[in-house]
Amino acid sequence: MNTQTSPFASTETRKADHIRICLEEDVQFQQTTNGLEDYRFTHCCLPELNRDEIDISTTFLGKTLGAPLLISSMTGGTPEAGIINRRLAEVAQHYRMAMGVGSQRVAVEKPQVADTFAMRKYAPGVLLFANLGAVQLNYDYGLDECLQIIDILEADALILHLNPLQECIQPRGDTNFRGLLDKIAILCSKLSVPVIAKEVGNGISAPIAQKLIAAGVQAIDVAGAGGTSWAKVESERAENMLQRRLGTTFADWGLPTAECLMSIRAVAPQIPLIASGGLRHGLDVAKALALGADLAGLAMPFLQAAASSEAAVYDLAQVLVAEITTVLFCTGSANLEQLKCSGNLQRIK
């Protein structure tokens, strides 16, 4: 189903479209996977552990988390998005997970919707990430706007998301990425909170990660291919044949999440690293951690749950925690550090 959007459609309308399309249409990668299916843990039939004592807590950017989970950046800017974010924030607080929000450009354009992002009141102890498209630094956004969105969220860090393919397909997309790295470097030097560079589902390569780190970015979210295809999402919003064709052609474009993790960790062993892109359950999370991630982000599973009910989000979080704990138990790992150091994740393909 293709949605025709007026040339004057607002950012707010676009966000409502994105929620609807992600929930109602098949916009997942069809051929490219996250790559994690190529790996298998060695089962330990005698773990010599009490499962109830397994510790899946971790720290990220100096903050302690109850689980190595990030509710990835998704939405905000509409009444429905505000309800979704509140449900997510309350569950994040309960399980002490990290949480990001969707792009806050709409909150700068329309300050009256800022409350749909302002989740600190629901999640006072949570690691919260503000979010803005990096390309907006080439479209009259700068330090002041970044400080504004950080303040709205009372955020612990700022995500700058990189989405060149999405912008190519999106109606009236912002496609001037020239000189952006230098502007990111200037912003990193001026902000008092860490900057996280994140793709939106097409992956970050090791060479680009090195450039971002050199520019001052303090964490990387690989956001690899294998989950939601934003090329397909935007093709559902297409206003003409060209946009629909581009969305179809590039529906499976990108670097698999596992490949991004391995390549970045090889050249940047110390950078805080988030794995996202097609992670669907706790086994995916555990594999990503064993491949070098410090945190694992999920978006679609949480969006589907939050669109249903707050109880559904609690149920999902409980399942994810149980799945991660089970992996540790069945690999003989008492904590996440042991999981990472065990060497029992083997490539099978």
TrEMBL record:
GO molecular function per UniProt? FMN binding; isopentenyl-diphosphate delta-isomerase activity; magnesium ion binding; NADPH binding; oxidoreductase activity
Task: List the InterPro entries hit by this protein, alphabetically.
Answer: Aldolase_TIM, FMN-dep_DH, IPdP_isomerase
- Which E.C. number(s) belong to this protein? 5.3.3.2
Q: Which residues bind Mg(2+)?
A: 167
**Residue stretches making up the FMN-dependent dehydrogenase domain:** 181-340
Biological process (GO), any one: isoprenoid biosynthetic process
Q: Which residues form a coiled coil?
A: none
Q: Which reaction does it catalyse?
A: isopentenyl diphosphate = dimethylallyl diphosphate
- Which of UniProt's keywords are assigned here? Cytoplasm, Flavoprotein, FMN, Isomerase, Isoprene biosynthesis, Magnesium, Metal-binding, NADP
Q: Does the keyword Magnesium apply?
A: yes
Q: Could you say which residues bind FMN here?
A: 72-75, 103, 131, 198, 228, 278-280, 299-300
GO cellular component terms?
cytoplasm
Q: One Pfam match, by short name? A: FMN_dh
Q: What is its main location?
A: cytoplasm
**Which amino acid positions bind substrate, per UniProt?**
14-15, 103-105, 166
- Cofactor(s) required, per the database record: Mg(2+); NADPH; FMN
Per the record, the domain of life is: Bacteria
Task: Write out the annotated subcellular location.
Answer: Cytoplasm
Q: What is the protein's known function?
A: Involved in the biosynthesis of isoprenoids. Catalyzes the 1,3-allylic rearrangement of the homoallylic substrate isopentenyl (IPP) to its allylic isomer, dimethylallyl diphosphate (DMAPP).
| Assembly, per entry | Homooctamer. Dimer of tetramers.
Similarity annotation: Belongs to the IPP isomerase type 2 family.
| Listed name of the protein | Isopentenyl-diphosphate delta-isomerase
Upper taxonomic classification of the species? Bacteria, Bacillati, Cyanobacteriota, Cyanophyceae, Nostocales
